[in-house]
Amino acid sequence: MALVGKVVVAQGGGPTAVINQSLAGVVLESRKFTQVTSVYGAIHGVRGIINEDFLDLTQETTHNLEQVAITPSSALLSTRDKPDVKYCQEIFRVLKAHDVRYFFYIGGNDSADTVNIVNEQAEQSNYEFRAIHIPKTIDNDLTMNDHTPGYGSAARFVAQAFIGANLDNRALPGVYIAIIMGRHAGFLTAASSIARKYPDDGPHLIYLPERPFDMEKFLVDVKKNCDQFGRCVVAASEGIQDAQGTPILTKSLETLEKDAHGNVQLSGTGALGDLLADVVRQRLKIKRVRADTFGYLQRSFFGCVSDVDQHEAREVGEKAAQFAIWHNLDGSITIQRTGDYSVDYRLVPLPEVAGKTRHMPDEFINPEGNHVTDAFRYYCRPLMGSGLQSAQRLRAPRVSKILAPGQ
Amino acid sequence: MALVGKVVVAQGGGPTAVINQSLAGVVLESRKFTQVTSVYGAIHGVRGIINEDFLDLTQETTHNLEQVAITPSSALLSTRDKPDVKYCQEIFRVLKAHDVRYFFYIGGNDSADTVNIVNEQAEQSNYEFRAIHIPKTIDNDLTMNDHTPGYGSAARFVAQAFIGANLDNRALPGVYIAIIMGRHAGFLTAASSIARKYPDDGPHLIYLPERPFDMEKFLVDVKKNCDQFGRCVVAASEGIQDAQGTPILTKSLETLEKDAHGNVQLSGTGALGDLLADVVRQRLKIKRVRADTFGYLQRSFFGCVSDVDQHEAREVGEKAAQFAIWHNLDGSITIQRTGDYSVDYRLVPLPEVAGKTRHMPDEFINPEGNHVTDAFRYYCRPLMGSGLQSAQRLRAPRVSKILAPGQ
Q1: ipTM of the complex as predicted
Q2: What is the pTM of this model?
C-alpha cells in the first residue's frame, strides 16, 4: 500500500550552479504522486527543519520552479551544520510532527551522513519513512559516483578561466598562478587542463592535494617552463599539502602570524596564491608574477553552466522521488557512466557514501605529480557539456626584417 | 592622390575580451583599399615594431580573422612599454624603413600618447603618414568617450559574478567582499550594481576610487547592512584610497612588511581583500567573512562577452581604417552615444585623449559615496549587451509551525 504523507526537501553545504535543478526535479516529480499530500522545502537545510521553517512548494508555480532551476546557488538557502545523533533526533521529531514520510537532502558526503542517521532514527521508532540523499558537490569527491552534479559546471568555469588566463599570460608573459577549490580532491583543479589547445598553452603545471607539494620541486618546475616557453601558467588546489600532510596554506599562515606578532591575521582567501607568487618572485627573480584565487566565482558564477550537468542534476532529483515514492527505497543516488557519453542512476546504501571522500585515481595524475593525464581529460571533457568554444591564434607568416636582417 | 604604402596595426596594454574585434576590423577594412600594399601586425605592441617583429596579415584568412576576433586577449600579444620620445623615434625609423604609411594602435590613454608622439615624428620629417589610436580599456577611463570597447564585456563579467556571489552569500550568510580592477576609475566596480534585482540583493555597498575610503565609515556601513539583512555584499575597487590620496592597498602593504621584518612580502593580489576581511572579522566580530579578488578573470574570461561591446569594438577598428585611408585623417576614435541605445564614432585630436584619465561623474555616485545612482545603472546596462538573464527566487508561502507555533 502506498505510503501517504508529506515530502521534505532541503539543500546543504556549498551551493553549485545546478543544485536547484535537483530541487526542481524532486518537487515536480513528487507532485505527480497522489500519496504525496504536500511538498515542503526546508529553509537553510537541516537547520530549517529544526526550526520548522518550511515553504509549501506544492503551491509553487511550475514556471517559477523552472526559472529557479536555472538560477545558481541553493534557492532554499543552505547551512554548514553537521548534525550529530542528537541533532538528527530533533530533525526526526519535527518531520514526524508534520507527518513527513519522504525526506530528500541534496548535498555532499556530510549530507549523506545526516540522511543516514535520520533514517536510523525512523527505523528505531518503527515510523514508516523513506530518506534519500541526492548528490551535489563541485569537488566531485563522492564515492560510488562516476562524477557528481555541480562538478561539470564548476569544471567548465575553471576551464574557461584558464583559456582566458593563458591568453592573457601569453600576451603579457610572466608567471601566473591560480588557486582552485578542492581541499581534499583535485578534480576541479585538474579541470584546468581542458583549457589547453596548442602544445605551448597553459596550464603548464597542475598541483593536486593527492600528491605531496614540494616547494623546491615547484620552483624547478616553474623555471623549466619559463626557460622553454618564456612564461608559465600554474593551477594549484587550495588543498595542496606537504609530504607530512600539512596544508601549504596552514604552514604559510603560521609563518605570517608569527612574523606579525599577532598584529596581522592572514586568514583571507588570497594567502596561498600570494605566498606561491612571492616565493617565485624572490627565488627565481621573475618580475611579472601574478596570483588569482578563483574563490566563490567558480561555484556560483551566473551564466557559466554545463548543459550535461544541468540535465543530470535534474534527473538525480527526479530519480530520488521515483525510488522513494514508487519503489519505497532508501539510499543515495549515484551517477554511473554507461557509455561515451551516457549515464544511468543507481541507488546505493547510504553508508557507502556517507562521510567518505573520493580522490583522483592514480591513472589521472602524471608520474611527476605536476599535471594530469589524457585519461583524465577524456573522463572530464563530456561533463563540461556542449558549446565550449576554443581560442584561435593568428597564423599569418612572419615578415622579413629590413633594418636587422637575420635577427 | 591616394597615399600608397603599408598598414601596421598593434595592440598595447592589458587585454580585453573584444580587443581582437578591433584588430579584425582594421585588417579586414584596410585590405579593401588598393593603395594599401600590405597589412602588418606588430607582435607585442610597440616593442614588436622596434624589433621588426611583424606578421603579414594580408596573408591571413578571413575565416581565421573572424575566429581570432571572438577570442579574448591580444592576438598580436601585448606590451607594458610606455615609449618616450626616443623610443617613438625608433618606432618611426622602423615604420619608415618598411614603407608604412598607416599606423593603428589599439590601446588605452598611454597608447594614444604613443600614437601622438610617433605622428609628430612623421610630421617633423615631412613623411606622409596617418596614425590613429583605437580605444580599448576595461577601465572605461578614456576622455571624450561615452564608454570604451572592452568595458561592456568586463562589466558583464562583474555583474554575472555578483549575481552569483549575492546568491551564494544569501544561502550561507555573512560578509562577502570582492575587489575589482580599476586603479583610478570606478566604472568597472560600479558595474556590480547591475547584479541587484530584489531590494535586499547585494552589492549592498560599492566603494570607488573617486571617493575617499574611510575604514571606520566602512565598518559602520557593513554593520548597518548586517543588522538589516543579516548579511552584506561589498564591491570595492582595487584603487580605493584614503582622504590623502594614499591607496588603502599601499597602506596595508607597508604595515604588513614592517610587521614581518622583511621576511614576508605581501605584494600579491589578494592583499586588499584579505585586509578588509580581517578588519571586519576583528572589529565587528563577524565569523563568516570572505574576500575574493576578481583579478585577471574579469578581463580575459573566455565565454563572457557583451555583443554590443563586440560590435562596437569591431566598428572602431573599421572606422579607424576608413578615417585614415579614405579621409586621410589622424586622431583618436571615440564612441558617442546618440540614442537609447545607439552610438556613432567621432575622430578627435590625439592630445585630447593621450595620457588623460576620465573618472566617474558625480551624478553616478550616491551622496554617501558608498553606492551608485540609478543614472549610472541606466548608463551602464545597455553596454553589457543582450541575453543577460536574472536570478529567480522561490515564491511559495510559508508553512505554519506545529511544534513551536507563533515563533
Answers
A1: 0.94
A2: 0.95
